[in-house]
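Hey team,

Filing this mostly as a record. A colleague (T.K.) asked me to run one chain through the structure pipeline before their review meeting, and I want the input and output archived in the tracker in case anyone asks later how it was produced. No errors, nothing strange. Just documentation.

Input sequence:
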Amino acid sequence: MATLTIFANFYINDEERFLRMKDSFLSFKDIEAEKWVINVRGKYKFDTLFFLHDNLGDKLIPYMLESEKGWFSDTRLMLGDINTDFVFFWIEDHLNLVDTKKYEEILKEMKDACSEYLCYSWWNSGKLIEPYSALQKREYKNISTFLLDKESLKETDIEKTYIISMAGIFLISLFNKIIKIGPPILRGYSKYCPFDFEKGGGDTSWLPIHYAIPKYELFASIDDGGEGYSLQSRGLYPKRALRPVAPLAEVPYLKFFFRTKIREYIPKFIYKKLIMIVIFYNKLSHHINLMLKGL
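Output structure:
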């Protein structure tokens, strides 16, 4: 049997975020996990930890780390309590949609296949698996598995692909590697945020990875991911608060241009090269902006 730790290092700073965290927890609290290693930051950290302790008891290993060194540094201090086969990176505004017993089957299949990573959310009517449709896979009851390396990545739609998302189930060795290496030199986000944990289509240095993809929707975002995907847009979650949507004028022009215009007129291999240039440009500009702001 594969063993599992639920990990989170999240920021709960208002009542709406606190309510979403509780709903997310209640949607999968019965998952077969040995421990929940949770760090909470923000104004609602005590409320969150009291709630989790009431429901988890001794399974909860709580932290309240919020140092000036940032998210990765704080998370490294938690690694000593994470020693199971797999790590479930809990995102507090995603809800489980299936019987939690399914995860026992999925973890067993991942262990049998030597899988290192599975994205458990962002299904979006099957769009999660579309970028990998051309790849040869090994089929199981609940998952499909394959090796994603630099060669097979060429057969995917790289601009649609996150090599690694936070909403994932990770083999412990891969999870530890990401945390210990930390953010890239060209950070895209503040050091106090977790988002540099994710690896985009251009981050090929992380390959090869033994991938697993689910055959059906497991979790879904409460309010992110577009109309028709999020739980709110499907009428499955109350709209107490809405995610602000940037007007078209605020969308970076290069990103808008490449996704809506030039793609129609140039060969695919050239388009992918241009995408890589845009990704590098965005990373560089974000990094400079963060340095100027002291983040």
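Quick notes for T.K.: The helical segments are 15-28, 45-56, 71-76, 102-113, 150-153, 172-181, 253-260, 268-293. The CA atoms of residues 72 and 181 lie 9 Å apart.
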